[in-house]
Design goal:
The chain is of the alpha/beta class. The protein contains eight helices and nine strands.
């Protein structure tokens, strides 16, 4: 069992909280009350960033002390959105939100994952017609092993998990968000994920 704190209580944070609690983890979710995010981050061994990516760097940089020595799992995408609310461009072209978080939080082990799919697939990967792929990016092997275990608890088979390497590889995973608006406009909000065929 891992003590997990989730920052962000929208659809992504809520579905992850439900699934991880069902898997036997002790989960707390930050609400909008003052100090809630700090309390959740301080009490958890592992923290999941499910806040909107556009404001994640500022929000989490303010928790530098509370996140010291923790694993930070970043599932967010930092994008500018069009009139229809769908992503149009990356906020950090040539870099990534995950890299900026790691730079701002040097005492924290940032791991990027679960950002290349519709949120429903994060906790139900086996519901897709073909095997999806989930990516890991991060500099600390031990932190990635812990996150790999959590992915397993969410239903991700080991063969579906691809470790891309260091945190700099997160820029490739984050760039995949640019597919999303076109896929949604083409097929609707049908669950989907990036999949590497072998």
């Amino acid at each position: 069992m891992t003590t997990i704190g989730i920052l962000g209580n929208g659809r992504v944070g809520g579905s992850l909280a439900t699934a991880l609690t069902r898997a036997g983890h002790q989960v707390s979710v930050a609400d909008r009350s003052p100090g809630s995010a700090a309390d959740v981050a301080l009490s958890a061994r592992l923290v999941i960033n499910a806040t909107p990516g556009v404001g994640s760097l500022e929000r989490l940089s303010a928790l530098r002390e509370e996140l010291q020595g923790k694993i930070l799992v970043d599932v967010s995408n930092a994008t500018t959105d069009g009139p229809d609310g769908l992503p149009t461009d990356l906020i950090y072209p040539g870099s990534s939100l995950a890299e900026h978080l790691q730079e701002a939080l040097p005492g924290t082990h940032v791991v990027k994952t679960l950002n290349t799919m519709l949120f429903t697939v994060m906790t139900s990967p086996a519901t897709l017609a073909q095997a999806p792929t989930v990516f890991l990016s991060g500099d600390e092997p031990g932190a990635k092993r812990v996150v790999r275990g959590l992915l397993g608890d969410l239903g991700w088979r080991d063969a579906w998990i691809t470790d891309l390497g260091g945190i700099e590889t997160a820029r490739a995973a984050e760039a995949a968000i640019l597919f999303v608006p076109h896929v949604i406009r083409s097929t609707g909000f049908t669950p989907f994920a990036v999949s590497i065929a072998r």
